[in-house]
Amino acid sequence: MAKFKAIVIEKADKGQTISLTDFDEANLMDGDVTVAVEWSTLNYKDGLAITGKAPVVRRFPMIPGVDFAGTVEASSHPDWKPGDKVILNGWGLGETHLGGYAEKARVKGQWLVRLPAGLSPRQAMAIGTAGYTAMLAVLALERHGLKPDRARSSSVAPQAVWARWRSRYSPSSVSR
């Protein structure tokens, strides 16, 4: 099997070590889709994992990175074929399952989301997990009869710009 570059966290006598290494594809975890990772983000959780400041990593060695966007290289999952553009965030990525800070990842096909038309993998990761979370918040507000309101002002995380892109609202505040 081929080797590829990956950031790897190893357990050490005192804490952990982290290095950029040549990782053997044979050591990727179980999954039915192999993805050539093109982009990932740096999230707070990734920072905690890399610095060892909190017990984020649950198994060693670990490739951190809670999300990624890339292109399917190989798949035995019925929904994915080589060449498909995909996004993944969550599902224990970078915590219990080898994450996105590598040139390749092997994951379960049901974890993947098709990259939306009109977005590049880079743009998807610019939105990132935080933007995805902001959009989930907007959808939850709408389910409860609330909607973003252009007339009111408040400070909103920059990730809410994704909510604006995705919805018909301007990210400024919420009202009934």
Task: Describe the model.
This protein is of the alpha+beta class. It folds into 2 domains: 112 residues, Quinone Oxidoreductase, Chain A, domain 1, CATH 3.90.180.10; 51 residues, no CATH class. The chain is built from 3 helices and 9 strands, in the order E-E-E-H-E-E-E-E-H-E-H-E. The strands form 3 sheets. The protein has a 5-stranded antiparallel β-sheet with strand order 6-3-4-5-7. It has a two-stranded antiparallel sheet with strand order 1-2. It has a two-stranded antiparallel sheet with strand order 8-9. Strand 1 and strand 2 form a beta hairpin. Helix 2 crosses helix 3.
- Poorly predicted runs: 150-159
Query: CATH superfamily of the largest domain, please?
Result: Medium-chain alcohol dehydrogenases, catalytic domain
CATH topology of the largest domain: Quinone Oxidoreductase, Chain A, domain 1
Return the structural class: alpha+beta
Q: What integer value in Å does the Rg equal?
A: 18 Å
Helix-strand topology string:
EEEHEEEEHEHE
* Total domain units: 2
The proportion of residues in beta strands is 25-35%
Main sheet summary? 5 strands, antiparallel
Blueprint (SSEs and pairs):
Elements: E1 3-11, E2 16-24, E3 33-39, H1 44-51, E4 67-75, E5 85-89, E6 104-107, E7 113-114, H2 121-143, E8 147-148, H3 160-166, E9 174-175
Helix pairs in contact: 2-3
In brief, what are we looking at here?
Helices cover 22% and strands 28% of the residues. The protein has 176 residues and is α+β, with helices and mostly antiparallel strands. It has two domains: 3-114, Alpha-Beta Complex (Quinone Oxidoreductase, Chain A, domain 1), CATH 3.90.180; 121-171, no CATH class.
